């Protein structure tokens, strides 16, 4: 998969996160979280693992976390990436 | 044991993560009405990940998929079936071929995912006039069908009548669906009571459904779970009576008597069957063993 266009997934509700993706020349992941000190590294790892599973090597990914579990972070990242592909196909 | 089935919106992480502590025997992770059309993709992936990574303990997981007419049901099954939910709930099932169609596709996905064929059960949601009239054929359509569930909100829209708390307008449909389920040898689950603030109304509605023969009832709020669980559980008096039934049978057998009576009433097969069911429920609820065995 390739991040072809700007896309978003998730919400700013508690236990969720908002994920924004857009094309970029390299892979950049930016995380902000209400539990950054405790779980910032884990959120970044969950994001990078998901991107690797999807074959993403380039793109800017911004995660605004509101206490999401790993499986929620992974779901929102995957949804945003899939939307970024789909929106181009539908254009 | 499935006294309560609690609906949880499929795209709401803060509710899904608490699914196993809400007291329901089963939760229905909903990909249909509780998810807006532009979030169907997000809900499908979130529910899939919840099934993949979370432990729901003894709480059974049912996933309600989008209707056949939506064009999204196959995508739902592609994502969800490999994670092995106990039950798939197809919506607006109106005829046996709806079930056959879904069952055939589930088999395809099970093969692809290398999981045991036939391990995913189906609980059709009957919520159209046509579905009610075809309830027995739906119940018998495939060996995966473990139960049927009547949904009276969409049904009353289809019947062009007003949904009321007394439920007079759906009395025929409720009766027909439970009778169809029992004739097919499967369970039947009752429609939710939609006023979450009316606890007395909920209790009456649940008692009425139990009286018709329903096994349990769907809930749309965790606040409804305790009342519905209570209504569909055997009371202490029921359990005591069931134990007594088996005690007098054992005593009669020891004395070589064929006919048995208890409190002036003959103990016949239906009474024994009912007592056995009560003791099975009691065992499942931790209220003593099923000592009739």
Structure write-up:
The complex is a heterodimer of chains A (91) and B (293). By secondary structure, chain A is an alpha+beta fold. Chain A has a single domain, classed as 2-Layer Sandwich (Ribosomal Protein S5, domain 2), CATH 3.30.230. Helix content of chain A is 43%, strand content 26%. Chain A contains 2 helices and 4 strands. Chain A has a 4-stranded mixed beta sheet. In chain A, helix 1 crosses helix 2. Chain A is globular and about 30 Å long. The two termini of chain A are 17 Å apart. Chain B is an alpha/beta fold and 293 residues long. Chain B has 12 helices and 11 strands. Chain B has helices spanning 13-16, 40-53, 73-80, 96-112, 129-133, 135-139, 152-159, 171-184, 199-212, 225-231, 236-254, 269-284, and strands spanning 4-9, 26-30, 60-64, 87-89, 121-122, 125-126, 147-150, 187-190, 216-219, 261-262, 265-266. In chain B, helix 2 (40-53) links the parallel strand 2 and strand 3. In chain B, helix 2 (40-53) packs parallel to helix 3 and helix 11 crosses helix 12. Chain A binds chain B through residues 9-10, 13-16, 68-72, 74-76, 78-79, 82-83, and chain B through 12-14, 17, 41-42, 45-46, 48-50, 52-54.
Query: What portion of residues of chain B belong to β-strands?
Result: 5-15%
What structural class is derived from the secondary structure elements of chain A? Answer: alpha+beta
Fraction of helical residues of chain B: 40-55%
Whole-number tally of structural domains of chain B: 2
**Rg estimate of chain A, integer Å:** 12 Å
pLDDT < 50 stretches of chain A: none
Structure characteristics:
heterodimer, A: 91 residues, alpha+beta, Ribosomal Protein S5, domain 2, four-stranded mixed beta sheet, 2 helices, 4 strands, B: 293 residues, alpha/beta, TIM Barrel, 2 domains, nine-stranded parallel beta sheet, two-stranded antiparallel sheet, 12 helices, 45% helix, 13% strand, globular
């Amino acid at each position: 998969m390739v991040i072809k266009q700007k896309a978003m997934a998730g919400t700013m509700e508690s236990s969720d996160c908002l994920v924004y993706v857009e094309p970029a020349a390299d892979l950049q992941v930016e995380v902000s979280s209400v539990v950054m000190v405790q779980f910032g590294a884990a959120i970044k790892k969950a994001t990078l693992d998901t991107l690797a599973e999807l074959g993403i090597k380039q793109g800017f990914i911004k995660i605004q976390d509101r206490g999401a579990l790993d499986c929620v972070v992974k779901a929102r990242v995957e949804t945003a990436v899939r939307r970024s592909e789909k929106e181009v196909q539908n254009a | 044991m499935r006294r309560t089935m609690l609906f949880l919106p499929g795209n709401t992480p803060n509710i899904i993560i608490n699914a196993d502590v809400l007291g329901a025997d089963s939760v229905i992770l909903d990909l249909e009405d509780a998810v807006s059309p532009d979030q169907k993709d997000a809900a499908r992936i979130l529910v899939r990940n919840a099934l993949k990574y979370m432990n729901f303990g003894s709480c059974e997981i049912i996933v309600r998929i989008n209707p056949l007419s939506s064009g999204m049901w196959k995508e739902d099954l592609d994502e969800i079936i490999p994670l092995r939910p106990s039950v798939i709930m197809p919506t607006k099932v109106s005829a046996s071929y709806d079930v056959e169609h879904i069952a055939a596709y589930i088999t395809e996905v099970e093969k692809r995912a290398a999981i045991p064929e036939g391990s995913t059960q189906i609980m059709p949601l009957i919520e159209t006039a046509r579905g009610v009239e075809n309830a027995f054929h739906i119940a018998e359509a495939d060996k995966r069908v473990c139960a049927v569930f009547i949904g009276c909100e969409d049904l009353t829209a289809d019947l062009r009548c007003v949904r009321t708390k007394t439920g007079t307008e759906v009395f025929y449909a409720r009766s027909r669906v439970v009778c169809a389920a029992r004739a097919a040898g499967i369970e039947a689950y009752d429609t939710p009571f939609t006023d979450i603030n009316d606890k007395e109304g909920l209790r009456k509605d649940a008692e009425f459904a139990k009286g018709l023969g329903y096994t349990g009832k769907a809930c749309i709020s965790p606040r409804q779970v305790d009342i519905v669980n209570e209504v569909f559980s055997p009371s202490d008096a029921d359990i005591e009576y069931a134990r007594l039934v088996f005690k007098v049978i054992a005593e009669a057998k020891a004395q070589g008597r064929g006919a048995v009576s208890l409190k002036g009433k003959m103990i016949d097969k239906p009474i024994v069957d009912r007592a056995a069911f009560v003791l099975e429920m009691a065992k499942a609820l931790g209220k003593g063993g099923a000592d009739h065995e």
